[in-house]
Design a protein that fits this description.
single chain, 191 residues, alpha+beta, 50s Ribosomal Protein L5, Chain: A, five-stranded antiparallel beta sheet, 4 helices, 32% helix, elongated
């Protein structure tokens, strides 16, 4: 997306969600309304230490998905059982903020999650107790930008959506209004 175009999700947040949340939560100051601060995307590369081409190819795919060049995460300690030395590359990480964050969230909610096989909604129990939501995607090839023919090994992504609130219920309501598809709770009828 170009830098000149403002994200639809960001506009929706500013014009519709902030007033609605302020009213629901009884907040007089618009700056006190919960907001998404950043989205952290992690991708583990087990064999990255021994094969540098894996890092390059996976890094390219993650850059296409997020619109930002990923940072290489390195091992902090040596682990003999895994044939791992301190400083070996073990994963990739991207931190999205601002326009890119809203663009990524909009794509995640409207395009990627509905493409998941047997998708019934995201579990509410994935909040961490401090208003942040953790989500794992088993195959990153569900992102429309990824070219299946160039992917050698299917990998998973771990996505953390960090909010500025410490309350899971406020964060859940914020994400619902942004369009995050949570699972519907089924009510069982008694016989």
């Amino acid at each position: 997306m170009s830098k000149m175009s403002s994200s639809n999700l960001k506009k929706k947040y500013q014009k519709e969600i902030v007033p609605k949340l302020a009213k629901e939560l009884g907040l007089k100051n618009r700056l006190a309304v919960p907001k998404v601060e950043k989205v952290v995307i992690n991708l583990g590369i087990g064999e990255g230490a021994s094969d540098k081409s894996v890092i390059e190819k996976t890094s390219r795919d993650l850059a296409v998905i997020t619109g930002q060049v990923p940072k290489i995460a390195k091992a902090r300690a040596s682990i003999a059982g895994f044939k791992l030395r301190a400083g070996d590359p073990i994963g990739l990480m991207v931190i999205l903020r601002g326009e890119r964050m809203y663009d990524f969230l909009e794509k995640l909610f409207k395009v990627v999650l509905p493409r998941l096989r047997d998708f019934q909604g995201l579990p509410v129990k994935s909040f961490d107790g401090r208003g942040n939501y953790n989500l794992g995607i088993v195959e990153y090839i569900v992102f429309p930008e990824v070219d299946y023919s160039k992917v050698e090994k299917v990998r998973g992504l771990q996505i953390t959506i960090a909010t500025n609130t410490d309350d899971n219920q406020k964060a859940k309501r914020l994400l619902e209004l942004l369009g995050m598809p949570f699972e519907k709770i089924k009510i069982q009828k008694s016989k």
